[in-house]
């Protein structure tokens, strides 16, 4: 059976390679040229032109223009399906990078560049994961295990970045890992294209035949176990997959498990921080609600007090007129009598010793000055004064008169002293 299968493959290779050699070279040249032009347009941010340039080589031809069956080539699939491995990787990697940039444009700029319908269709390929199916169907004849590992990495990364759910990404990557590790030998599928006959033998070795293939395989495992499975909360399965992997040696297994543990701790810490943040936000909202309620109550009380004051102010003029009008009629005479009384003079405090001495000295000076002036102006008055003093001296010379005068003077002086003392007390009060 194995010999018959090898003969079929050999005959198919001989029949398909010779007639299509020149056309295959021409098509490869056209694919490479279209790729370079699209890349240049992409670098200059002319995204619509880049898309229109790359689309013809990644889109299958119209079925009406395909004659018969596959005829030993890939005419029913996208032109890139018949290109060399390096060209395929470049074209599909470019297209996936292009889609990532289209999504990152945003709705406003994206719709302006491509139109609303076209932009939504391109974004939908990345978010619902349908781009994976498009690449497998159009670029690899529908054979999942034939995808180039670099293209798979870019597909998984694109879905990891933009797809809200990673379930489809996990399923597709598991299917690829299983198919590439255990390829199924389907004679009818392999007879469709000589390109696949040339490409399939490299898939029989777990993708680790060269250091480059091993490095690519490690990237796939890292993407699967440390990014996609944790996004789906498949922590235990990721740990088990790493431990059971035949590709990873003990050192790499330990590194992968350590990275998985760190990622889980980071996620738990992030969830704890988010929970605390939500709690703080809830407490702040509650505090703001209480403050708002307190301000509302305060404003309500202030408004009530203001209304009460306004009501009291509106009632007060009538009440005050009634209160003050009647007493004015009844107590008119008494009010007028009180008004006619002179106001009490303010009592000034008694002068000090220095002020009294100054006043006495000024009074003596005034007396001497007035006496001198009087003597000059009216000599008769002075003469009468001298006669009075002479008579007073003669009368004062008698003892009985002198004692009587002294007694009268003492009594007068005592009255004057008491009067002055009472005045001083009143002034202090």
UniProtKB/TrEMBL annotation:
Residues 265-277, 285-325 have a biased composition (Basic and acidic residues). It comes from the Eukaryota. Residues 192-213, 265-351 are annotated as: Disordered. Residues 203-213 have a biased composition (Polar residues). The chain crosses the membrane at residues 380-397. Keywords: Membrane, Transmembrane, Transmembrane helix. The keyword Signal does not apply. This is Peroxin 26. It comes from Zopfia rhizophila CBS 207.26.
């Amino acid at each position: 059976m194995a010999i018959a299968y090898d003969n079929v493959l050999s005959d198919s290779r001989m029949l398909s390679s010779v007639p299509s050699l020149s056309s295959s070279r021409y098509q490869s040249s056209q694919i490479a040229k279209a790729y370079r032009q699209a890349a240049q347009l992409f670098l200059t941010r002319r995204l619509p032109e880049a898309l229109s340039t790359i689309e013809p080589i990644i889109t299958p031809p119209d079925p009406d223009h395909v004659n018969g069956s596959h005829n030993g080539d890939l005419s029913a699939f996208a032109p890139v399906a018949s290109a060399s491995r390096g060209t395929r990787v470049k074209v599909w990697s470019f297209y996936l990078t292009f889609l990532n940039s289209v999504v990152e444009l945003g709705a406003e700029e994206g719709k302006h560049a491509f139109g609303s319908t076209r932009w939504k269709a391109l974004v939908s390929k990345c978010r619902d994961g349908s781009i994976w199916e498009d690449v497998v169907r159009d670029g690899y004849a529908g054979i999942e295990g034939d995808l180039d590992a670099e293209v798979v990495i870019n597909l998984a990364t694109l879905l990891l970045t933009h797809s809200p759910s990673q379930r489809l990404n996990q399923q597709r990557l598991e299917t690829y890992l299983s198919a590439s590790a255990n390829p199924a030998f389907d004679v009818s599928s392999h007879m469709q294209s000589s390109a696949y006959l040339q490409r399939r033998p490299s898939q029989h070795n777990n993708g680790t035949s060269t250091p480059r293939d091993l490095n690519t395989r490690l990237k796939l495992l890292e993407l699967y176990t440390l990014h996609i499975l944790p996004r789906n909360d498949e922590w235990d399965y990721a740990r088990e997959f790493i431990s059971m992997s035949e590709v990873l040696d003990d050192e790499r297994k330990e590194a992968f498990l350590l990275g998985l543990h760190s990622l889980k701790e980071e996620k738990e810490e992030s969830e704890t921080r988010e929970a605390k943040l939500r709690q703080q936000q809830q407490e702040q909202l509650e505090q703001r609600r209480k403050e708002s309620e307190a301000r509302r109550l305060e404003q309500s009380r202030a408004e009530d007090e203001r209304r009460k004051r306004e009501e009291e102010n509106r009632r007060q003029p009538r009440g005050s007129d009634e209160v003050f009008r009647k007493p004015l009629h009844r107590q008119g005479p008494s009010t007028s009598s009180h008004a006619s009384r002179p106001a009490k003079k303010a009592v000034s405090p008694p002068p000090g010793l220095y002020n009294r001495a100054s006043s006495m000295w000024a009074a003596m000076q005034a007396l001497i000055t007035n006496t001198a002036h009087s003597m000059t102006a009216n000599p008769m008055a002075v003469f009468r004064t001298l006669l009075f003093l002479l008579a007073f001296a003669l009368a004062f010379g008698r003892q009985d008169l002198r004692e009587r005068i002294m007694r009268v003077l003492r009594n007068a002086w005592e009255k004057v002293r008491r009067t002055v003392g009472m005045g001083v007390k009143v002034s202090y009060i």
